[in-house]
Design goal:
The protein has a single domain, classed as YaeB-like fold (2-Layer Sandwich). Helices cover 36% and strands 30% of the residues. The chain contains four helices and five strands, in the order E-H-H-H-E-E-E-E-H. Strand 2 and strand 3 form a beta hairpin. The longest helix has 13 residues. The radius of gyration is 12 Å and the shape is globular.
């Protein structure tokens, strides 16, 4: 999968250094994955949540952080739409971000 944008993840882990390792691990895994369907993501991340408009919510670091990506399965691309703490996630509309 091609992940856009690493800069968003990097900015977050600079503000929250404890997020660096788990986000780096997720990025490395997702970059080398070939997730052609939601089922493929679910097989790798059983706690992933699927929202409308091909958005996927990943729990990062034991659910301390949330990552929302929009997936273009046919292009094998993921666009980072949000990364934040669980509290920040609760304050947004995940279906519209």
């Amino acid at each position: 999968m091609r992940i856009l944008a690493l800069s968003t993840l990097r900015a977050f882990w600079e503000a929250y250094p404890q997020a660096r390792m788990p986000l780096s691990h997720w990025y490395a895994e997702a970059s080398s994955a070939d997730w052609a369907t939601p089922d493929a993501i679910k097989a790798a991340h059983r706690n992933a949540s699927f929202l409308a408009d091909n958005r996927v919510v990943f729990n990062i670091k034991g659910n301390d952080y949330r990552l929302i990506v929009k997936v273009h399965y046919n292009r094998r691309m993921m666009f980072v739409r949000f990364v934040g703490t669980h509290e920040q996630y609760d304050a947004i509309d995940a279906e519209r971000i």
